[in-house]
Amino acid sequence: MPKEKLIKKQVSYTEEQLLKPEEMQQLKDKLYKQVMIYLPGYLLLLTVALIIYLNAPESYKTVVRRAAELDEEEVSRMWRLAPYFSLFVFLMATIFFGKIFYQSILPLIKDINHKAKTLIFYKPQKTAMAFFNRYYISIPLFTKRRIEIEGNDFNSISETEDICLEVSKTSLLILQVKVNDKRINCFSSTHS
Q1: In this predicted model, what pLDDT tens digit does every residue of 5-44 receive, in sequence order?
Q2: Comparing C-alpha atoms, which of 122, 116, 118, 139 is closest to residue 15?
Q3: Nearest-angstrom CA–CA distance, 95 and 153
Q4: Which one of 28, 49, 176, 186 has the minimum C-beta count within 10 Å?
Q5: What 3 state SS string does the chain have?
Q6: pTM (2 decimals)?
């Protein structure tokens, strides 16, 4: 688990366990969603770069100005610039989606391959917004500081007892929260 993302002063202790089949499926579903969000955009940008590379003057007429009358010099210039522009689009798309891959997809792949999770035991801080019917507890991760829970679960949590936060090792995806071996329903996370 990346130690720099864990707030050590809030944590009582941690341990590791193997992922259960339903947790493995949860990670696989999250991985599939991430790939389906980013892969089409990357492929679309690569297709645009290829179309511009293969037929720069016609792609200019199709996208920018349909009634464009291009003389021979402008067409020649477009053919000379098309490989550079296509290479620029390819490099920028690859850098952008490569960064997304290393930040969101690769950690999920590592979690699925390692088949382990981290159990973090800590004393939560409770925040009630009863007027809006929202109840939050703190979690000791820098990236996600509070999670929303149900009101009944909120009342069953004591600020003096340790609760168990189960997260995947690398991606820090919250798998579940338990209080005395009772699962707490989590909805969303917010930054505090």
Answers
A1: 777 777 888 899 999 999 999 999 999 999 999 999 999 9
A2: 118
A3: 43
A4: 28
A5: CCHHHECHHHEEEEEEEECCHHHHHHHHHHHHHHHHHHHHHHHHHHHHHHHHHHCHHHHHHHHCCCCCCCCHHHHHHHHHHHHHHHHHHHHHHHHHHHHHHHHHHHHHHHHHHHCEEEEEEECCCEEEEHHHCEEEEECCECCCCEEEECHHHHHHCCCCCCEEEEEECCCCCEEEEEECCEEECEEEEECC
A6: 0.78
* pLDDT tier, 192 (very low <50, low <70, confident <90, very high otherwise): very low
156 and 96 part of one domain: no
Measured between alpha carbons, how far is 188 from 87 in angstroms, rounded to an integer?
40
Which of 114, 129, 151 finishes a domain? 114
Residues 92, 121, single domain; the answer is: no
Cα 49 to Cα 89: distance, rounded to the nearest angstrom:
6
Question: For residue 48, is pLDDT > 80?
Answer: yes
- Counting the structural domains of the chain, the total is 2
